[in-house]
Amino acid sequence: MASTSDIKNGLCIKYNNDIYKIIEFLHVKPGKGPAFVRTKLRSLTNGKVLDNTFSAGHKIEEVRVENHKFQYLYPEGDEFHFMNTETFEQISLNKNILDSPGLLKEGESVMVSINTETDLPLSVDMPASVVLEVTYAEPGIKGNTATNATKSATVETGATVNVPLFINEGDKIKIDTTSGNYMERVKE
Protein backbone atom coordinates (compact mmCIF):
# COMPACT_ATOMS: atom_id res chain seq x y z
CA MET A 1 0.00 0.00 0.00
CA ALA A 2 1.20 3.47 -0.84
CA SER A 3 0.01 6.82 0.48
CA THR A 4 -0.70 10.15 -1.19
CA SER A 5 2.90 11.26 -0.63
CA ASP A 6 4.02 8.56 -3.12
CA ILE A 7 1.84 9.91 -5.94
CA LYS A 8 3.76 10.87 -9.08
CA ASN A 9 3.05 11.11 -12.82
CA GLY A 10 2.87 7.69 -14.46
CA LEU A 11 2.02 5.79 -11.25
CA CYS A 12 -0.53 3.00 -11.81
CA ILE A 13 -3.08 2.46 -9.02
CA LYS A 14 -6.19 0.36 -8.35
CA TYR A 15 -9.21 2.58 -7.74
CA ASN A 16 -12.95 1.82 -8.03
CA ASN A 17 -12.30 -1.75 -9.27
CA ASP A 18 -10.26 -0.46 -12.20
CA ILE A 19 -6.61 0.32 -12.93
CA TYR A 20 -5.77 3.99 -13.44
CA LYS A 21 -2.62 5.83 -14.44
CA ILE A 22 -1.94 9.22 -12.87
CA ILE A 23 -1.58 11.84 -15.60
CA GLU A 24 -1.35 14.97 -13.42
CA PHE A 25 -1.27 15.66 -9.71
CA LEU A 26 -1.07 18.67 -7.43
CA HIS A 27 -0.40 18.68 -3.67
CA VAL A 28 -2.61 21.38 -2.13
CA LYS A 29 -2.13 22.76 1.39
CA PRO A 30 -4.88 25.30 2.02
CA GLY A 31 -4.47 27.86 4.79
CA LYS A 32 -7.41 26.36 6.61
CA GLY A 33 -8.16 22.63 6.78
CA PRO A 34 -6.19 19.48 5.92
CA ALA A 35 -3.93 19.03 2.90
CA PHE A 36 -5.08 17.02 -0.11
CA VAL A 37 -3.86 15.81 -3.50
CA ARG A 38 -5.81 16.73 -6.63
CA THR A 39 -5.23 14.17 -9.40
CA LYS A 40 -6.22 13.50 -12.99
CA LEU A 41 -6.53 9.74 -13.60
CA ARG A 42 -6.87 7.87 -16.91
CA SER A 43 -8.47 4.44 -16.94
CA LEU A 44 -6.18 1.89 -18.57
CA THR A 45 -9.12 -0.30 -19.60
CA ASN A 46 -11.33 2.22 -21.42
CA GLY A 47 -9.19 5.38 -21.69
CA LYS A 48 -11.62 7.66 -19.82
CA VAL A 49 -10.13 10.50 -17.78
CA LEU A 50 -11.49 11.45 -14.37
CA ASP A 51 -10.57 14.05 -11.77
CA ASN A 52 -10.23 12.84 -8.19
CA THR A 53 -9.13 14.32 -4.88
CA PHE A 54 -7.36 12.23 -2.24
CA SER A 55 -7.07 13.52 1.33
CA ALA A 56 -3.52 13.68 2.75
CA GLY A 57 -2.34 10.35 4.10
CA HIS A 58 -5.01 8.40 2.17
CA LYS A 59 -3.88 4.85 1.37
CA ILE A 60 -3.85 3.91 -2.32
CA GLU A 61 -3.29 0.47 -3.80
CA GLU A 62 -0.34 0.58 -6.17
CA VAL A 63 -0.12 -1.75 -9.17
CA ARG A 64 3.34 -3.21 -9.76
CA VAL A 65 4.46 -2.65 -13.31
CA GLU A 66 7.54 -3.42 -15.37
CA ASN A 67 8.62 -1.24 -18.28
CA HIS A 68 9.87 -2.90 -21.45
CA LYS A 69 11.14 -1.35 -24.67
CA PHE A 70 8.96 -2.17 -27.66
CA GLN A 71 9.11 -1.16 -31.32
CA TYR A 72 5.94 -0.07 -33.12
CA LEU A 73 5.34 -2.28 -36.17
CA TYR A 74 2.02 -1.46 -37.91
CA PRO A 75 -1.65 -0.58 -37.34
CA GLU A 76 -4.55 -2.91 -38.14
CA GLY A 77 -7.96 -1.29 -37.61
CA ASP A 78 -8.12 -0.20 -33.95
CA GLU A 79 -5.23 -2.51 -33.03
CA PHE A 80 -1.58 -1.41 -32.98
CA HIS A 81 1.13 -4.09 -33.17
CA PHE A 82 4.38 -3.85 -31.19
CA MET A 83 7.47 -6.06 -30.85
CA ASN A 84 9.58 -6.49 -27.71
CA THR A 85 13.13 -5.48 -28.71
CA GLU A 86 14.73 -8.06 -26.37
CA THR A 87 12.57 -11.18 -26.83
CA PHE A 88 11.07 -10.31 -30.27
CA GLU A 89 7.64 -11.27 -28.87
CA GLN A 90 4.79 -9.42 -30.59
CA ILE A 91 1.72 -7.92 -28.91
CA SER A 92 -1.27 -5.95 -30.20
CA LEU A 93 -2.86 -3.13 -28.22
CA ASN A 94 -6.07 -1.19 -28.66
CA LYS A 95 -5.67 2.47 -29.60
CA ASN A 96 -7.50 3.50 -26.37
CA ILE A 97 -4.36 2.58 -24.39
CA LEU A 98 -2.17 4.90 -26.48
CA ASP A 99 -1.80 8.58 -25.56
CA SER A 100 -1.45 9.88 -29.12
CA PRO A 101 -1.78 7.06 -31.67
CA GLY A 102 -1.83 9.49 -34.59
CA LEU A 103 1.81 10.44 -33.96
CA LEU A 104 3.19 6.88 -33.96
CA LYS A 105 5.53 6.22 -36.88
CA GLU A 106 6.45 2.68 -37.92
CA GLY A 107 9.75 1.67 -36.28
CA GLU A 108 9.30 4.12 -33.35
CA SER A 109 10.56 2.88 -29.96
CA VAL A 110 8.16 3.15 -27.02
CA MET A 111 8.07 1.97 -23.39
CA VAL A 112 5.20 -0.42 -22.55
CA SER A 113 4.15 -0.80 -18.90
CA ILE A 114 3.16 -4.39 -18.14
CA ASN A 115 1.26 -5.48 -15.00
CA THR A 116 3.52 -7.97 -13.19
CA GLU A 117 0.56 -9.87 -11.66
CA THR A 118 -1.37 -10.55 -14.87
CA ASP A 119 1.35 -9.97 -17.53
CA LEU A 120 -1.09 -7.71 -19.40
CA PRO A 121 0.10 -4.45 -21.04
CA LEU A 122 -1.29 -1.41 -19.23
CA SER A 123 0.00 1.67 -21.04
CA VAL A 124 2.36 2.91 -23.72
CA ASP A 125 4.76 5.77 -22.97
CA MET A 126 5.87 7.53 -26.13
CA PRO A 127 9.03 9.61 -26.41
CA ALA A 128 8.63 13.26 -25.35
CA SER A 129 8.70 14.38 -28.99
CA VAL A 130 8.70 12.87 -32.46
CA VAL A 131 10.07 14.15 -35.78
CA LEU A 132 7.65 13.71 -38.69
CA GLU A 133 7.60 14.88 -42.29
CA VAL A 134 4.82 17.18 -43.50
CA THR A 135 2.96 15.52 -46.39
CA TYR A 136 0.39 18.27 -46.98
CA ALA A 137 0.33 21.94 -45.99
CA GLU A 138 -1.73 24.76 -47.42
CA PRO A 139 0.39 27.61 -48.76
CA GLY A 140 0.92 30.50 -46.33
CA ILE A 141 -0.74 33.79 -47.23
CA LYS A 142 1.71 36.64 -47.67
CA GLY A 143 1.22 39.52 -45.25
CA ASN A 144 -0.46 37.33 -42.64
CA THR A 145 2.63 37.26 -40.43
CA ALA A 146 1.86 40.15 -38.04
CA THR A 147 0.33 37.76 -35.52
CA ASN A 148 1.10 34.20 -34.53
CA ALA A 149 -0.95 32.83 -37.41
CA THR A 150 -1.05 29.08 -37.94
CA LYS A 151 -2.36 26.70 -40.56
CA SER A 152 -3.15 23.01 -40.43
CA ALA A 153 -0.70 20.52 -41.87
CA THR A 154 -0.91 16.76 -42.34
CA VAL A 155 2.13 14.69 -41.31
CA GLU A 156 3.28 11.32 -42.64
CA THR A 157 1.27 9.36 -40.03
CA GLY A 158 -1.97 11.04 -41.11
CA ALA A 159 -2.32 13.28 -38.04
CA THR A 160 -3.20 16.96 -38.45
CA VAL A 161 -1.09 19.54 -36.58
CA ASN A 162 -1.32 23.33 -36.42
CA VAL A 163 1.96 24.80 -37.68
CA PRO A 164 3.31 28.31 -38.43
CA LEU A 165 2.78 29.72 -41.93
CA PHE A 166 6.39 29.17 -43.05
CA ILE A 167 6.12 25.34 -42.87
CA ASN A 168 5.85 23.71 -46.32
CA GLU A 169 5.37 20.19 -47.68
CA GLY A 170 8.49 18.06 -47.23
CA ASP A 171 9.65 19.90 -44.08
CA LYS A 172 10.42 17.81 -41.03
CA ILE A 173 8.87 19.11 -37.81
CA LYS A 174 9.21 18.17 -34.14
CA ILE A 175 5.89 17.51 -32.37
CA ASP A 176 5.27 17.28 -28.61
CA THR A 177 3.57 13.89 -28.03
CA THR A 178 1.76 14.88 -24.82
CA SER A 179 -0.08 17.86 -26.29
CA GLY A 180 0.21 17.15 -30.04
CA ASN A 181 1.54 20.67 -30.65
CA TYR A 182 4.20 21.84 -33.10
CA MET A 183 7.56 22.53 -31.39
CA GLU A 184 10.07 23.42 -34.12
CA ARG A 185 11.22 22.80 -37.68
CA VAL A 186 14.06 20.28 -37.93
CA LYS A 187 16.88 20.95 -40.37
CA GLU A 188 18.88 18.02 -41.67
TrEMBL record:
Residues 67-122 form the Translation elongation factor P/YeiP central domain. Keywords: Cytoplasm, Elongation factor, Protein biosynthesis. SUPFAM superfamilies: Nucleic acid-binding proteins, Translation proteins SH3-like domain. It holds the Pfam family Elong-fact-P_C. GO terms for biological process: peptide biosynthetic process. PROSITE patterns: EFP. Residues 130-185 form the Elongation factor P C-terminal domain. It is found in: Cytoplasm. GO terms for molecular function: translation elongation factor activity. Pathway: Protein biosynthesis; polypeptide chain elongation. The keyword Protein biosynthesis applies. InterPro entries: Elong-fact-P_C, NA-bd_OB-fold, Rib_uL2_dom2, Transl_elong_fac_P/YeiP, Transl_elong_KOW-like, Transl_elong_P/YeiP_cen, Transl_elong_P/YeiP_CS, Transl_elongation_fac_P. GO terms for cellular component: cytosol. NCBIfam families: efp (TIGR00038), PRK00529.1 (NF001810). Involved in peptide bond synthesis. Stimulates efficient translation and peptide-bond synthesis on native or reconstituted 70S ribosomes in vitro. Probably functions indirectly by altering the affinity of the ribosome for aminoacyl-tRNA, thus increasing their reactivity as acceptors for peptidyl transferase. Belongs to the elongation factor P family. This is Elongation factor P. The lineage of its organism: Bacteria, Pseudomonadati, Bacteroidota, Flavobacteriia, Flavobacteriales. The gene is efp.
